[in-house]
Amino acid sequence: MKKINLAVIDDDEMYVYAVKKLVEKVELADRTVYFENGKVALNYIDECIHHTYLLPEVILLDLHMPITNGWQFIKEFKKLKIRIDKRITIYIISSTVNEEEIYRAKHIAEITDFVCKPVTIDTFSVILAEMNYNNKINSN
How far is Cα 28 from Cα 54, in angstroms, rounded to an integer? Predict the structure, then answer.
């Protein structure tokens, strides 16, 4: 299985702990960074723009966080991404059942998919399969 650089942006400590254990168990990532809100994550991405090896290939983004929530993160990420020389895939990972939020997330180009919490090994398998498919398309 191809290992990735992963970023998890979520303020729920129990969820983050569970994701850490799952990432370790399935040996998913070469590098995983965790952020408690979107602002800290945006600062990290901005600082690493010229060091693409530090940037994640995949971001697991929660919607509801303090300081900078998921929607605000996406808005600011759109401005940053034009300066990033690397494809970054964003998955909304949320416990929301609000149909409007799910619809909104699925209609934002920067968001690859909306996944309901909790994430599982199957979730990571789907993400990796989608990345592999996209990498094949991008290399042709």
Answer: 16
Q: What is the DSSP letter of 58?
A: E
Q: Is the dihedral of CA 4, 54, 92, 132 positive or negative?
A: negative
pLDDT tens for the chain, 140 residues long, are 567 899 999 999 999 999 999 888 888 888 999 999 999 999 999 999 999 999 999 999 999 999 999 999 999 999 999 999 999 999 999 887 789 999 999 899 999 989 888 888 888 888 777 776 454 434 44
CATH number at residue 17: 3.40.50.2300
Host domain of residue 16: 4-97+108-119
Is 136 within the bounds of a domain? no
Domains of the chain: total: 1
59 in a domain, yes or no?
A: yes
pTM (predicted TM-score):
0.89
